[in-house]
Amino acid sequence: MILLENKINIFEKIVFLDKERECREKLKAEQDRIKIELQSKEKELEDMKSEVISRRIHLAKRQGSERITQANEEGRILELQKDEELLSELIQELCEKAFNFTKTEEYEYFIEGVFKRAIEDIGPGEYKVEILKEDEEKFTKKFREIGEKKGMKLEFQELSLRDIGGFTLSNFENTYVIDCTLRNKIEDSRYDIGKLLHFALKKAGEDK
User: Fold this and answer.
1) Coiled coil: which residue ranges (predicted)?
2) Element (H or E) spanning 56, and its range?
3) Cα–chain-centroid distance for residue 56?
């Protein structure tokens, strides 16, 4: 009877030990699985953190670049506005000088030469000439004499005061107009004057 009980006890111990070992193995396996999952989650979170940081850095750089571009564009616009204001002032000064020029004797010789060159390639016919009212006495007779030598019959009309001086020449159908007004000559030079002004201002800024 004792021997049987001993055998039972031994069997129970063996079974217990097996169960204990099995539980320990399962516990270790579960711990290992959890550890691996934690490491994976940590790496995933670290990757997400790096991606978020990278995105924020990229966004900050892009926004910074956009702000720099915007600032440069605003600066360029202000610079162009300043150039345009100075150019308009310069054009106005030239117009005033041109107006003063119309009061000189040199103006008459100059416009007479311009008229001769303007009709070099024009054939006989009837034409319209517009001049300022105050220039009629200066040019009407001279222009007629020059035109008659080429078989041109001229009719004179009044030129707008905004044109300062000079003349326009056209046929009666207005299919072409030769604009030799002083204002037009100044406006034709506006681009070149503006370009020179821009480079002069840029050079002055670089020399500071």
Assistant:
1) 17-51
2) helix 2-101
3) 30
Angle subtended at Cα 37 by Cα 35 and Cα 38, rounded to the nearest 5 degrees: 65
Model confidence, pTM: 0.56
Render pLDDT for 5-63 as a digit per residue (tens, 0 to 9). 665 666 656 655 666 666 667 667 777 787 787 677 777 767 776 776 677 776 766 76
Per-domain residue ranges of the chain: 1-101, 105-190
Distance CA 7, CA 17 (A): 15
Contact 146, 140 (CB under 8 A): no
**Contact between residue 138 and residue 108 where contact means Cβ atoms under 8 Å apart:** yes
Give me 49's structure tokens: 């953190």
Sign of the torsion angle spanned by Cα atoms 24, 25, 29, 30: negative
Residue 150 pairs with which residues in a beta bridge?
A: none
Q: What is the pLDDT of residue 129?
A: 96
- Residue 167: predicted pLDDT: 96
Q: Could you give the maximum distance between any two Cα atoms of the chain, in Å?
A: 160
Pairing of strands 125-131, 166-171: antiparallel
CB 152 within 8 A of CB 167: no
Structure tokens at 120: 């070099």
From 200, 166, 167, 181, select the one nearest 90 (Cα to Cα): 200
Q: Give the C-alpha separation, 177 to 67, whole Å.
A: 50
Residues 3 and 158: their CA atoms lie apart, in Å, by 146
